[in-house]
Amino acid sequence: MKYIKKSEEPESFTVWKNLANEDWQPSWDGFRKPQKIDVHDSLLQEQGFICCYCGKRITKDISHIEHLKPRKTHQNLALEYTNLLASCQRERERKEPLHCGSKKDEWYDENLMVSPLDINCTEFFRYTEDGQILSTQVIEKKSAADTTIDKLDLNIDKLKKMRSDAIEGILEGFEELTENEQQKLLQAFCQPDDNGQNQEFCAAIAYILKNYFELVK
């Protein structure tokens, strides 16, 4: 999981909501083109085109607008931009196994959900070279991390395999690079590229690379 810094909501979304009057109120069911497309595009851009939970590469065609706090229990936040994220697995094309927002569904617990909007969210998780995501060993954060991994099914075989392949591809030949080249590679996974895109599974790969530097110190 990588921290997401929310941007301003699209102007078209704000204008649409401000049309509210005695005869009409904006609602999720009435939220359609072009405002919905603008919001989806904005979410993808602020996330660097990776899933808000697993870090998989996403586009508009293979993702959906996710409510961090579910609409069923937080109806007042249904159209609140700060509660919206982009998650993998498009709603109309969801296939087993479900994970991330599709698996989370209507679950949310203020104390046990690690949010990608928390600037310290990366501190809750560890990763292994074989693609596993594990909870931190810090006691006060472990319960929330374990619960989040379970509720979002972030350790299913499909995701472990994808993370493992991504990590393996980066580590191959890594030791042959100069220290400066290694540092530059690490930085490439810590921030978006010139096109505003984050690398797929960047949080996992950055964790592995940082551990490497700690071991060789």
Give a description of the structure.
This protein is mainly alpha-helical. The chain has one domain (11-216). The chain is 36% helix and 7% strand. The protein contains seven helices and four strands; from the N terminus they run H-H-E-E-H-E-E-H-H-H-H. It has helices at 11-17, 35-46, 100-104, 139-152, 157-171, 179-188, 202-216, and strands spanning 63-67, 84-88, 125-127, 133-135. A two-stranded antiparallel ribbon has the order 1-2. The chain has a two-stranded antiparallel ribbon with strand order 3-4. A hairpin with a 5-residue loop joins strand 3 and strand 4 (133-135). The longest helix is centred in the last third of the chain and has 15 residues, at 157-171.
Could you outline the blueprint of secondary structure elements for this entry?
Elements: H1 11-17, H2 35-46, E1 63-67, E2 84-88, H3 100-104, E3 125-127, E4 133-135, H4 139-152, H5 157-171, H6 179-188, H7 202-216
Helix pairs in contact: 5-7
